[in-house]
Amino acid sequence: MIEHAGGHVVFASPDEVPWDDEVDVVVVGSGAAGWSAAIAARRGGADVLVLEKLEQIGGTTAKAGGECGGPPAPGELPQRAGTWLWICDHPWLDGLGHSDPRDDALRYLARLARPTQYAPDSPTLGLPPDDYALLEAFYDHGKRVVAELDALGAPRLRPLADTWDYWADLPENQCPRGRALYVPLPDGREATGAEIIEAMSTAAGEMGVRVRTSTPVHGLIVDSESGAVVGVQAGRSAASASLVRARGGVVFATGGFTHNAALRGAHLPSPITGGLAARGSTGDVVLLASALGARFANMANAWLTPMLLDHGAEPVSGAFRLPGDSMMLLNRLGQRVVNEKVTYNEMTRAFLRWDEALGEYPNRVLVMLFDRSVSERCRAMPGDAPIDEGGGNPLARAGGADEHEIVAETLTGLAAAIDARLARHHDRFPGLRLADDWAEQAALSVGRFDDLARSGVDVDFHRGESRTQRARSGAPRSAEFGNPTMHPFDHSGPWRAVLLVAGTLDTKGGPVIDPDGRIVRPDGTAIAGMYGAGNCVASPSGEAYWGGGTTLGLAVTFGWLAGEHAAGRAGSGSASRTPVG
Ligand SMILES: Cc1cc2nc3c(=O)[nH]c(=O)nc-3n(C[C@H](O)[C@H](O)[C@H](O)COP(=O)(O)OP(=O)(O)OC[C@H]3O[C@@H](n4cnc5c(N)ncnc54)[C@H](O)[C@@H]3O)c2cc1C
């Protein structure tokens, strides 16, 4: 007997369902979280099937390039273009001469995850116990997960000795460098996300994990007696849908909801109009988990990044690192509004500010203004990917396509050209134009910036005052004025600008999980058989972006825990399973 409850959940007795396929664990989504879940479940002896909505595997993970800036300054290391994973107390830290004790690390995690709740003297550091338990799980298991993935070559990982966390100077951070991991390739490059997916999917395939692409999961089968999720409906249409039984459980690893306009509009700050996520990130788990009464959290938070206005709502990459010293960000009123050397996630918060007096978002678009010197010194170099090919430097590569750069001999000319460019984007940003006196205000802002640069101290925004910011300085000329991240502008022109808007790498809100990756109800009880990991669930990171690689560090850790638990659940009902190593 099959009963329907809305379009997405079917209640039935598992023995009466005409299953098309039966496995122990179904993994929905083939990004990093999905492959980690699949590998862990297979390691636990489960028969695993990965179902991917799109024609190709990889999701946003396969789009990940990494940070990439201008040429290295004297004494600075080259900018990186790989994809990183951020993990506390990982097995290679010892070799770097660092230690990452649990109590210290948890303070750093909690301080940024829940800044308004953080209370260092409380046993849970001021966090609700459930939230704290997720941070504990990340600390306790992340290191084991990356060791296991490394041992399987899925992928092989190594530490980045020289990389600072995004909040290296917070007193809570007692291990400010070395937590980021990368994947070294034989040719000396750092692996991209696509190459990480290749390594994970190859290892999974060799272990016997099956994968089916072009197979969106759009329904759940729930045991009408126990309430446990026991399978999925998947396929492009109702006619071609197949029913796949999942004896141990279904792990959702379906990415965020960046490309679902309704969910974005309902939950994210309105200046965010798109993001870098792959097009499969449409929040499919939201409907399914809602139908089963899951608890939701973190829906208004996202992994944020500035992105080029001219590259549309789903660009290849983001402006992860704004290069140069004579460079600053101005809003539509011509005012400088942010420290331009903070990390991309933190900088994007400035785009979202509402002006309570003017009744508008004056930072919805920010003009990255730079001079001839920055233009000549700070472009992506041969070997660095430019922003239209996955890099993070918004300047075009020397000799490359530069339509997104606006150039004029004077600030007045630049204002007119920027305004004309904004008018072209009326559909996405209706009514967004520069203030009439933008050029005059910009000139005042430049004058103020020049004075601050000469004084060596940015009393307005504290640019260059942390190690993280100095590491992001991007080809400073010299420490002539005391602050290598700032230099007075060259007023002889030409003036150049690129236009930046707020975007996401992807969202990080969704159903809440427990430390085993189980999706929970508002009362904290688990929905048996339903798991989640990666960007599709309420991120254990809350508001935080701890360091480069945070999103993938969490995705592989909680994907693994979910896969492991689901395999265990299948194991308790099946005698024939053999662990696969
Ligand atoms: C340019 C760039 C650089 C980045 N660099 C880094 C970095 O260096 N380090 C880092 O940590 N993060 C980085 N990120 C972010 C990181 O890539 C993502 O946060 C991460 O890959 C998300 O992994 P995931 O497994 O949660 O989701 P995804 O990789 O997005 O996978 C989700 C998959 O689920 C599929 N899916 C969705 N719905 C369904 C359905 N109903 N049925 C079946 N399948 C479905 C999707 O098609 C997709 O393939 C970067 C991102 C970009 C774009």
Question: Over the alpha carbons, how many angstroms does the gyration radius reach?
Answer: 24 Å
Number of discrete domains = 3
CATH superfamily of the largest domain: FAD/NAD(P)-binding domain
Give the overall form.
Answer: globular
Biggest sheet descriptor: 10 strands, mixed
Helices, by number, come to 13
Q: What are the bound molecules?
A: flavin-adenine dinucleotide
Distance between the termini: 40 Å
- Count the E strands: 20
- Average residue-wise pLDDT: 93
Q: What fraction, in percent, of the residue positions are helical?
A: 25-40%
CATH-defined fold name of the largest domain: FAD/NAD(P)-binding domain
Q: What is the CATH architecture term of the largest domain?
A: 3-Layer(bba) Sandwich
CATH class of the largest domain: Alpha Beta
Structural class: alpha+beta
Strand content: 15-25%
Q: Catalogue the unreliable spans.
A: 67-79
Characterize the structure shown:
The protein is α+β, with helices and mostly antiparallel strands and 581 residues long. The chain folds into 3 domains: 2-64 and 194-303 and 508-571, 3-Layer(bba) Sandwich (FAD/NAD(P)-binding domain); 85-193, no CATH class; 305-504, Succinate dehydrogenase/fumarate reductase flavoprotein, catalytic domain (Flavocytochrome C3, Chain A, domain 1, Alpha-Beta Complex). The chain has helices spanning 32-43, 93-96, 102-113, 129-151, 193-207, 261-267, 284-291, 344-351, 372-377, 411-424, 438-455, 467-471, 550-571, and strands at residues 2-5, 9-12, 21-28, 48-51, 85-86, 158-159, 180-182, 210-212, 217-223, 229-234, 242-252, 296-297, 302-308, 327-330, 365-370, 406-408, 495-507, 510-511, 518-520, 526-532. The strands form 4 sheets. Strands 1, 2, 3, 4, 8, 9, 10, 11, 19 and 20 form a 10-stranded mixed beta sheet that branches. Strands 13, 14, 15, 16 and 17 form a 5-stranded antiparallel beta sheet that branches. A 3-stranded antiparallel beta sheet has the order 5-7-6. It is globular, with a radius of gyration of 24 Å. It binds flavin-adenine dinucleotide. Flavin-adenine dinucleotide (FAD) is lined by residues 28-34, 51-54, 58-61, 63-66, 83-85, 193, 216-217, 253-255, 276, 278, 280-281, 284, 303, 317, 390, 505-506, 534-535, 548-552, 555.
